[in-house]
Amino acid sequence: MxxxxxxxxxxxxxxKKFRAxxxxxxxxxxxxxxxxxxGRDIPVTELLSTPDWLQHNRFLIHxxxxxxxxxxxxxxxxxxxxxxxxxxxxxxxxxxxxxxEKNLAGKLSVSLDTIQDPGNLGTIIRTADWxxxxxxxxxxxxxxxxxxxxxxxSMGAVLRVNIHYVQLETLFEKLSQQNQYVIYGxxxxxxxxxxxxxxxxxxxxxxxxxxxxxxxxxxxxxxPVTIPSFSSSAGHVESLNVSxxxxxxxxxxxxxxxxxx
Amino acid sequence: MxxxxxxxxxxxxxxKKFRAxxxxxxxxxxxxxxxxxxGRDIPVTELLSTPDWLQHNRFLIHxxxxxxxxxxxxxxxxxxxxxxxxxxxxxxxxxxxxxxEKNLAGKLSVSLDTIQDPGNLGTIIRTADWxxxxxxxxxxxxxxxxxxxxxxxSMGAVLRVNIHYVQLETLFEKLSQQNQYVIYGxxxxxxxxxxxxxxxxxxxxxxxxxxxxxxxxxxxxxxPVTIPSFSSSAGHVESLNVSxxxxxxxxxxxxxxxxxx
Lengths: 261, 261
Description:
2 copies of one chain form a homodimer. The first copy, chain A, has 261 residues and is α/β, with parallel strands linked by helices. The first copy, chain A, folds into 2 domains: 4-93, CATH 3.30.1330.30; 101-260, 3-Layer(aba) Sandwich (Alpha/beta knot), CATH 3.40.1280. The first copy, chain A, has helices at 4-12, 16-22, 30-39, 51-57, 73-79, 118-130, 148-153, 168-176, 242-260, and strands at 24-28, 44-49, 65-70, 88-93, 108-112, 135-138, 162-165, 183-192, 202-206, 223-226. Chain A has a 6-stranded parallel sheet with strand order 7-6-5-9-8-10. Chain A has a 4-stranded mixed sheet with strand order 1-4-2-3. In chain A, helix 6 packs parallel to helix 9 (242-260). The N and C termini of chain A lie far apart (53 Å). Chain A binds chain B through residues 35, 39, 119, 123, 126-127, 129-132, 153, 155-157, 160, 192, 194-195, 227-233, 236-241, 243-248, 251-252, 254-255, 257-259, and chain B through 35, 39, 119, 123, 126-127, 129-132, 153, 155-157, 160, 192, 194-195, 227-233, 236-241, 243-248, 251-252, 254-255, 257-259.
């Protein structure tokens, strides 16, 4: 049974402030929760599930699961963000993400300047994970990656990629001091991504959905890069969606690697 | 002033049934409506705007604008899908989209099997438009491209791309009879997209967000294609988001063209 306190706790986790205070966040739905449990290496603070879900998935429960609370379908509907809940939610501890600038050399990372739409942020994290990117740097103006909508759109990739909220200007200044470290920026004007000589290393920077990359970062970006449009009505098309741009950049940076392997 | 009848009409246009009956759909927001008006070639059945918006944008009004209704901010909030309306909405006639199979030869088109999420569908249409794709074929199970959420996510690209709702199996059967016409399908297993010999022509097929391409279409797909994952945690990553997959496919099919031009 769901106590009033637990119900309050779960609902409070939908706010960024309470997530920051507790270091906890929510994951939801049979698919995502099952995947996390099957991995067995992520501690689960709380599992809230219907008796039916639990009966069918008891084999997934491992010693890292701290508390299990059985809830009715009606109780789950009250705390769920899903229109049709699928039997289970869980509370996890936010993974801690640390980095050293020098360890970023030789691999490709992503920086996001004020990506505000949770769906975009989640999709970007999912795409980055697919291409094996291990570190994403977000400006403080980005959506919170532990927002339930981001977690869901990322299909759990928030648990696999290290996501750092930083002052991008400070980070880029430090990285620029490293020999041969290249910071690429996604712009409407710049070198065509198809003409670029690149290896799968450096930093790819993407800007806000409507305003692009903040002007104060411009001088730190070594190569402005653009994805050329092939549309005959190009004048009318303002830009690609930022998550589509991330997919194209990642694919183009890694394709050389794929052909060599 | 907004009459009760007009308010009912606008709200009814949020349903697929009423859009189909009337052949009309809604566009919303200063950015999109301004862009459509500036193009001057799209007839506008109704423009609903605040006096303030109209005062600043009167130069955009052209003879193809049929009716202008001034509405108050409060009235606009009642009919708007935006949390913060930006002064204007419009009713447009759906563009008619026709095609002949033989005209598809030599160019690249997209088919979508049961893409249900409006945000995904809109983003895919926007991406396709960016890459100059002129025809998108949707199975009847796809979201309606004139759903306000799709129109918005497409940034108006629904007006620039011809979108056809068809029986994909019938279409593919006809196309397969054409010499050298190639139908590519996006799968988790198949030829790596980076190893594929391709030109910017043929049909790219993408399937449902969780179920992929329907098995009944499989025998009509000549080349199953996959986007390889570079993630070391690949076992955990089920797939790329379908709109990210479309971006990667389009980029990879057109990059040869970009380098030759």
